[in-house]
Amino acid sequence: MKSHFNSNNDKNGKIAAERVPNEGSLCPDLGIIETVLWENGGYFLLGAHLARLKKSAAHFSFPYDKGAILHAFGKLQETFDPKKKYRVRLVINRSGIPEISHCILPDAPPQTQKIVISKTRVDKTDFFLYHKTTNRGNRDCELQKYREKGIFDVIFMNEQNEITEGAISNIIIYNNGKYFTPPESCGILNGIYRQHLLKNEKFNMEKKILFEQDLTYCEKIFLCNSVRKLLPVTLAD
Do 170 and 26 touch, CB atoms closer than 8 A? Predict the structure, then answer.
């Protein structure tokens, strides 16, 4: 299901602003995405999602209307079954008209999921890596290729062979009582649940440059995003 709402301008830029091309060089159908979990009567970490959306909207000079988005989300949740969880996808484009769709979130698979490391490298100077947009390069193709082989997510490395992230998740490893996740400078999206965990002192997680051997020899590997939260995984053989 989809709905549309008008928006107004609001400016506030951040990551790699000097690398933004002029308006005409952006693909005309570019959209900025936020994917939000609805559970227990509310939207999980909605404030953080909207803060990131606002920064990306300013970065690409897209209109942003927080009030219209909150109104739309409020009307949408009136239709939800409180016993279920929903995945809500918000996209705003350069015309300032948000598009909202949603679906019931299936239960997480009971078995530990598998991941693989892609042979494709990402360029960490690509500013699109730092924003959640519809310009996903070859990530969806790589993900689909491995999904057909029973793989849950595919992990990318950059041109310096540093681990970056998955096609749909940030990555975390656990070793010697601590959790580690790659820094944004490796070329990753600063995921909302990743931000949440980094702020949680009880979780004890630090940013650290990781390589393939770190995933091979660590005690545990996790994927995280704000819809599935923390998901244990293992490297496929």
Answer: no
DSSP state of 70: H
Residue 222, Cβ neighbours under 10 Å: how many?
Answer: 18
Number of other CB atoms surrounding residue 112 within 10 Å = 11
Strand order across the beta sheet in which 205-207 lies: 163-166, 153-158, 113-122, 229-235, 220-225, 170-175, 178-181, 205-207
pLDDT at 98: 86
- Please list, in sequence order, all residues whose beta carbon lies within 8 angstroms of the beta carbon of residue 3, skipping any fewer than 6 positions away: 72, 76, 99, 100
- Contact criterion met (CB below 8 Å) for 212 and 117: yes
- Per CATH, which fold does 113-235 belong to? D-amino Acid Aminotransferase; Chain A, domain 2 (3.20.10)
d(CA 83, CA 101): 19
Q: Which fold has domain 3-104?
A: D-amino Acid Aminotransferase; Chain A, domain 1 (3.30.470)
- Cβ(130)–Cβ(16) below 8 Å: yes
Q: Are strands 153-158 and 113-122 parallel, antiparallel or unpaired?
A: parallel
Q: How confident is the model over 16-45, as pLDDT tens digits?
A: 333 334 343 457 789 999 999 999 999 999
Q: Spell out the domain ranges in the chain.
A: 3-104, 113-235
Query: What DSSP string describes 123-141?
Result: -TT-GGGGS-BS--TTHHH
What is the C-alpha to C-alpha distance for residues 35 and 233, in angstroms, rounded to an integer?
A: 21
